[in-house]
Specification:
The protein is built from one helix and four strands. It has 125 residues and is of the alpha+beta class. The chain has one domain: Roll (Bacterial Protein-export protein SecB). The mean pLDDT is 83.
Length: 125
């Protein structure tokens, strides 16, 4: 197992639509995507976490956050970055996405929204 260090992150996209007529508790669905890009021979990787929350009628409320993390990694060997190590990038980036979404939900008049951390499975290959 190699060392993975989060050097920094940025919000690369943020969409928030709140046209709900009342504040308080709201039932939301969520969707998450996660990917990691790296260049063979480099010791840096970019992880992208996309988190979407919305109502069935997304014309009333939706929140989309795209968070990019820059990582220093020492486990990229022969142009391959093990999936288990990529999942460590998700584990490092998730708390920041959760914190941003919690803060935005409160500031938009909703009850505090906590996104569920996904148990991602490493994919061989």
């Amino acid at each position: 197992m190699g060392k993975i260090e989060l050097l920094g992150y940025k919000i690369s996209r943020l969409e928030l639509l709140n046209e709900l007529e009342e504040s308080g508790e709201v039932s939301l669905s969520d969707h998450m995507e996660f990917s990691v890009r790296f260049e063979p021979g480099e010791d840096m990787a970019v992880a992208v976490l996309e988190q979407y929350l919305g109502k069935e009628d997304s014309s009333k409320f939706h929140l989309k956050l795209v968070l990019e993390g820059i990582f220093h990694v020492d486990s990229i060997k022969n142009g391959k970055f093990p999936k288990e190590e990529q999942l460590k990038c998700y584990d490092s980036l998730f708390p920041y996405a959760d914190q941003i979404i919690r803060m935005l939900s409160i500031e938009s008049g909703l009850m505090e929204v906590a996104v569920e951390k996904k148990d991602l499975e490493p994919v061989c290959g």
